[in-house]
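Hello again, I could really use a second opinion on something today. I've been staring at a protein lately and its backbone has me curious. You're getting the sequence in one-letter code plus the fold written as tokens. I'd be grateful if you could look everything over and explain what you see. No rush at all, and the record is pasted right below:
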Amino acid sequence: MTRVKRGTSAHKRRKNVLKETKGFKWGRKSKYRLAKEATLHAGTHSFNDRKNKKGDFRKLWQIQINAAVRKNNLSYSKFINLLKKNNIELDRKILATLANNNKELFEKILKEIKS
């Protein structure tokens, strides 16, 4: 059986790891051992942060809705409560978009709730 030299496959593997760590700080972008460790940690953080991003956006939408509703002497929690009582099923993303971009329609929703 012929001998297999593994230099090319090892070099390719190392090159790919270093390609993933492009832009990292210090030796983690250029030294293979540090880069390999950095990619492992980066992967776990990116997985967790994809989940956290959803909550972060929800918090942002709540803040935007609250700011728009406060101008009409109403609190966020009372606004959401009135929405549910009036069976208006708009999610927070849509409400925040309306509060920022389409103020007239948001005002109509507020009038509908208050009456």
User: Anything to note?
Assistant: The CA atoms of residues 17 and 36 lie 6 Å apart. The chain has one domain: 8-114.
